[in-house]
Fold:
Amino acid sequence: MTENRIFNFNAGPSALPLTVLKEIQDSFLNFKGSGMSITEISHRSALFDEVINDTVARTRRLLNIDDKYHVLFIQGGASLQFAMIPMNFLAEGATADYVNTGTWSTKAIKEAKLLNKTVNVVASSEDKNFSYIPQNIKFSKDAAYVHITSNNTIKGTQWHEFPDTGGVPIVSDMSSDIFSRPLQMDRFGMIYAGAQKNMGPAGVCMVILRDDMLKRSEEFLQSETKSLPNMLRYNTYSSQNSMYNTPNCFGIYTIQLVLKWLEEEVGGLEKMEARNLEKGNMLYDFIDGSNFYRATAEKKSRSLMNVTFRLPSEEMEKEFISQATKNGMGGLKGHRSVGGCRASIYNATTVEAVEALIKFMKSFAMGK
Ligand SMILES: Cc1ncc(COP(=O)(O)O)c(C=O)c1O
Structure:
């Protein structure tokens, strides 16, 4: 391992590409000859304009979208989006469909209900402890949007094919799998993701919003007697290049470098997907072939980002995590709400890290 760094399997914040961290380090004291760091320059400067505009351009190139989609940077994490979505898109009398596939979808549903909005939970995998992605869902024809969570970070499940919603725009929380694979973007009215897994540090959420959705929210907000505060409206961000107030400059700069890495080193999202498949298949194949470890998600729904598994007993899981730490592998503890083990193998996790993990898992099992 390089420079005393460990193999990082954290669920988020999580591993970032080493080249990105080094570039930040190298440019930190004197950003582009300014004599200041990125955290000291003005967000109204030409230097920062270049950062944010390049980040948006790279997002568009990677996802193959044009300016019909607005790329916004909003603070408050993905969790604020749980509230902003119904606030901006659900006029009085309008309804939305939600699919409940775990903790984060449950939170999104709760926030919408808290705002007294009408939401239909059209499908849920709660009956089997959220271990699968529901299929053959009947969506409402007149819903304003269908909300899904594309990757369920805690339960280790992922949508591998997006549902046919009969033309109703999909709004997806992609916090834990954005930029992990190519997307057919015309299916989505909006996608959003907290940066701290596949993009950068915590403190900034990327929102990609289709123009018709933005227009819809503007019309709805104009017709409402009670207006929303500026910071909670999407058009505040879209009309001012995400700089109505001071954005998270450092976070956006890191995202820029991660996207540069994705374009220039990895070679785009098809290549990223191939690498993610290689890592995921390697780990799941090993787990399936062992009679010691057990994967918790149903095969067809397994996540390529968060591999959740159990050992024969909780004591062994504790020992496994502690020995892994001693062997230079961090972040393998399952989410506190579910226990067990979880290896998060996001974009920046290398094949070498997964191979090292499998080697360790083999030797741990042999010793039992
Ligand atoms: C799928 C998903 N959605 C939402 C969140 C919450 O994100 P934030 O902490 O940025 O609000 C997380 C955090 O782990 C997540 O994994």
In short: Residues 269-289 form the longest helix (21 residues). The CA atoms of residues 91 and 224 lie 8 Å apart. The pocket of pyridoxal-5'-phosphate is lined by residues 12, 77-79, 104, 149, 153, 173, 175-176, 194 (CB under 6 Å).
